[in-house]
Amino acid sequence: MSATRMLDGKVVVVTGAGGGIGRDIALSAAAHGAMVVVNDIGAGLDGKGQDEGPAACVVQEIRSAGGEAVASLDSVADAEGAGRIVQVARDAFGRLDGIVNNAGILRDAFFHKMSDEEWDKVLKVHLYGSFNISRAAAPLFKEQQSGSLVHMTSTSGLIGNRAQANYSAAKLGIVGLSKSIALDMERFGVRSNCIAPFAWSRMISSIKVDTPEQEARVARLQQMTPAKVAPLAVYLLSDRASDVSGQIFSVRNNEIFLFSQPRPVRSVQRDDGWTPERIADHAMPALAASFHRLDVSSDVFTWDPV
């Protein structure tokens, strides 16, 4: 176990913790003193099926290293299931101090070809799931006047990627959710932050690779391990981050980024108001220099990870 115990005495739920980023966060949280609820339904990347094996294996890893952990197989996409995940923490350890909303699935498709099911399933797990478990924990956090929520967002939502309308919408929605939680729960000592992780995982391995640009993006991701994301998550769960809330971070190998948040960048004004023609002739030409390009994530992160 680590000599640095930033989470001693704390109880943490990590969703989607049976593998990838969630597993590394669960292991790191336990190594830093937390009692961990390892939540994972053990489903395939399409969200189908259920297997207790992944969560049980991570629990065993934590216990073998001298930590404390229990498994949870409930789905965050179901509000009642999210309530049971929170109850597992209370039953096993008597309290709950932090949640990492990491569970996710992918159903990639171009927007104009995306089915209702592909849209619904991804939003249910990512966005609804983050809302469900955060809301289930809110009364406990309010009562104890403390708590930390760490949500996994993505540059697919913050910047953009092709063939991921469902995933991008969910991940950007999580940013809005996190900010609202931070604002609404601030007076109760509850914090909420986002991490956009760059890391190779089972879920990311299903990304469509049908262009040289996508091949280059995947090649870069394969160099980045989930373990690189865990330290920031542990920090945000700890009391050392008591003044950090409503922020969007990213981890890219050994780099940590703080993301900007939408604010006005330029304005135009006419005392006598605007007509569509005036907008076309004057407003848009004046604003065009500040337009954002149709970037994808790889257009922004063009350098190799260090």
UniProtKB/TrEMBL annotation:
PROSITE patterns, per database record: ADH_SHORT
Domain (Ketoreductase): residue spans on this chain: 10-203
Entry-linked Pfam families: adh_short
InterPro entries (UniProt xref): KR_dom, NAD(P)-bd_dom_sf, Peroxisomal_Beta-Oxidation, Sc_DH/Rdtase_CS, SDR_fam
Database matches in PANTHER family: BLL2957 PROTEIN (PTHR45024:SF3), DEHYDROGENASES, SHORT CHAIN (PTHR45024)
Family statement: Belongs to the short-chain dehydrogenases/reductases (SDR) family.
Protein name, per record: SDR family oxidoreductase
Organism this protein belongs to: Xanthobacter dioxanivorans
